[in-house]
Design goal:
Hypothetical protein YwqG fold; seven-stranded antiparallel β-sheet; three-stranded antiparallel β-sheet; 6 helices; 12 strands
Length: 275
């Protein structure tokens, strides 16, 4: 049976001496499901499409003066409550239309935290009078006219479900607690490989999500000392929705717990890896 709403002891008798340790890693997260939708309100949660943006605020641009492209918009009034996350307001993620690296300037650490050609924006209060919002986005280029398509091509509405899961195999925090997953399960002998395969399926971190543990097409790029220990948003590739990070890759926003608590989104880490 599952204890603490996340870890199934009966499924893993070979891990008996580690049951409590695995249960201590269980975290809540928000699963996100998408639906292509061309008819959404400006303040609705969405991937792609036209954003919520008050007229009195200058629309974000990249370092070359190009208007940024909306990747994701989360209206926390529509999302099940998650401890430590906003209870209201709108969070947005933008990237540059110069999409060779989907808004990143490079692969070094400083590139993943410098919001030159990507941006995270938070509006704590939502204005729902359209006359006060930008509603004509003709100044934005058509995504299909970009040399490289953006990670989210078609507008999608979002639905949310709260769930719980223990630590994922390839989140750096697994190594901190248990060591390399291959070595950890390898110590179990013949049953280890089967147990590892089952665990990777039962507690896969794939998919679009808020909070919990992250999944990676290649490796977790974070270093523990950096402190970006909270998954703010994960967008997985979803071909049926034309959502793609570098050919079946995954895009992430990570944040430090203290910054999230303060609703300070100026210091966010953005990474993506290709499949």
């Amino acid at each position: 049976m599952k204890n603490q709403k996340g870890f199934d002891r009966e499924a893993y008798p070979e891990l008996k001496e580690y049951w409590e340790k695995f249960e201590s890693t269980v975290k809540p997260y928000i699963e996100i499901k998408t639906k292509i939708n061309e008819n959404m309100s400006y303040w609705q949660s969405k991937f792609g499409g036209y954003p919520y943006w008050p007229k009195k605020i200058e629309f974000p641009k990249d370092s070359k003066g190009n208007y940024l492209y909306l990747v994701a918009q989360l209206n926390f009034e529509e999302i099940p409550q998650l401890k430590g996350f906003p209870q209201k307001g709108i969070l947005q993620w933008y990237v540059s239309p110069d999409l060779g690296l989907y808004g990143l300037d490079g692969y070094k650490f400083k590139d993943t935290i410098t919001q030159n050609n990507w941006r995270v924006v938070y509006f704590p209060d939502i204005e729902k009078k359209e006359e006060n919002l930008i509603t004509n986005f003709s100044f934005l280029p058509n995504p299909k006219d970009y040399t490289t398509w953006p990670p989210v091509l078609k507008p999608c509405s979002l639905s949310f479900k709260k769930d719980y899961a223990p630590i994922a195999l390839y989140d750096y925090q697994f190594i901190e607690l248990f060591g390399d997953p291959f070595d950890f399960f390898g110590q179990l002998g013949e049953v280890g490989e089967e147990a590892m395969d089952a665990y990777s399926v039962d507690y896969s971190a794939k998919g679009h999500k808020i909070g919990g543990y992250a999944d990676f097409a290649q490796v977790d790029q974070r270093v523990p000392e950096w402190g970006y220990n909270t998954l703010l948003l994960q967008i997985d590739s979803e071909p049926s929705r034309d959502i793609d990070f570098g050919s079946a890759g995954v895009g992430h926003l990570f944040i430090k717990k203290d910054d999230l608590k303060k609703l300070d989104f100026s210091n966010v880490m953005y990474t993506w890896d290709c499949g």
